[in-house]
Amino acid sequence: MADAVAAGLPSGSGPGAADIGKEPGVREVVIGAYIENIQGIDLATNSFMADLYVWMRWQGADLAPYESLEVMNPYETWALDAKPLTEEPVPQPDGSLYYAIRYQGAFNTALKLEQFPFGEQDLNIQLEDQRSEAGQLAYVLDNNPIAIDPQVTVPGYVIGEPSITVSDIQYSSNFGDLTSRENNVYSRVTISVPVTHPFLATSIKVLLPILLVVATASLIFHVPPGLIEARIGLGITALLTLVAMQWSAMADLPDGGYLVMLDVLYIISFLFVLTTLIQTLATSWRA
Question: What's the predicted TM-score (pTM) here?
């Protein structure tokens, strides 16, 4: 990336990536991104660490979109590091100007945990111009606008194909500025990286222990009815084991107001073990 900048070449596929200025009154900025690394995902804080490059190309020396480019979803603003690769925009063969920034830090993203430990999570990074509305400045995607280093790995996850989109975001406020109208619309860039837990490995690590405990609890029905202490002890041990396993498995998740898939599996297991204990006690009383 740095070599491309030093040579004065864009990281995109060429000068014809977009028809800059095709709409009167709207300044268009060609944009793209390269994901260098994803260091980790924190489910408890709905955040992840990432290292990426963002490049822009535009027409007109009077425009400086890199000065007003803002990350909309930083997790810790003070820890977000933005380093330009050049001090000034680099002229391109088509007359446009090129500028690239390297971002390193933590980003906040709304994780969908209803299907945990399965399901797909989208790691999103959102960029927006903090000064100009969509009617003044709009982002357009480069020909090859998004790529990720093939060496990037995240322990415990499978990384899918990244994507980048541009959309118009409307704010229902003028933020106290009397010179600004309400319902302002801004052009926003969203970089998304889908990740999933590997199904087979997750099933073995999460589901197999639950099945083993439930199978152990079912052995109560094979213990002679006269050994009531052994039967009850087996059920209580299975129940306490499930409680400890659930506490350990859910420790990294945020406190939400809904049940995830893993919660449902543990609840079913709890009900099974409790049913065996109740039946054991009922049998002992009849005896």
Answer: 0.80
